[in-house]
């Protein structure tokens, strides 16, 4: 009979591309993965991994077994979710992740709600970028993720995932106090400056949205400073190095030397909770989504 843990190890190698990455995802040592695969090879009487340069490659037999393993693991997760729903108790361990500003602005309150209402539930928190979170939820490495997209640039949701809206987060223009727009009560999209801008790095959701937004009104920004954290962006604005578009969830205490100017219509990003559809009946996942909603309602 095939062992479930050994199938899980093989599936992780197929998904992550190496024994080391699979071990990291399953939170075990690489030698433990290798031992599981060696036992699986003996059980099946076939070679599953072949050397490929400095890495490994799955054989055709392994590929066939991975297809079955994926279905088996999905069925096991669905069965666990059904059984947990039958018991109705919020217990066990839940992995919860969020992009940086939500990890700071939402997760602390959500975690407090979970600890207060469900003391038997253990929660493991991660800070992740949205794209990585979606991959990890889809692969079963994270139970619930908090992700974002901009309403004019929606993020496609992979098959097999469900989501719930948590909040709409408005972004404002932030300029140095000596900037020509600093005294305005509000600006339109066509008023946005074309000069120096501060943003997160290329490929991030907010960077790509800033380019999209400005180009939609025929502006070509010069992004002269790139920083992943909004407090860093605000410090750069305060020093006079450019303007920034800062969501309110990401805004901390404003430093001296900056002015916040609302944009009309307001650029808005939507924040979601995402989980695997087949695990949605787990009481722990339902409790986590409820806690995230409660944390956002407290902020509102």
From TrEMBL:
GO CC aspect terms: protein-DNA complex
Keyword Transcription set for record: yes
Superkingdom in the source lineage: Bacteria
Cited Gene3D superfamilies: Periplasmic binding protein-like II, Winged helix-like DNA-binding domain superfamily/Winged helix DNA-binding domain
Cross-referenced InterPro entries: ArsR-like_HTH, LysR_HTH_N, LysR_subst-bd, WH-like_DNA-bd_sf, WH_DNA-bd_sf
Pfam families: HTH_1 (PF00126), LysR_substrate (PF03466)
Gene Ontology terms for molecular function: DNA binding; DNA-binding transcription factor activity
UniProt entry keywords in alphabetical sequence: DNA-binding, Transcription, Transcription regulation
Domain HTH lysR-type: from-to ranges: 2-59
PROSITE patterns named among the record's database cross-references: HTH_LYSR
Keyword Lipoprotein set for record: no
Family: Belongs to the LysR transcriptional regulatory family.
Protein name in the entry: Transcriptional regulator, LysR family
Top-level taxonomy: Bacteria, Bacillati, Actinomycetota, Actinomycetes, Streptosporangiales
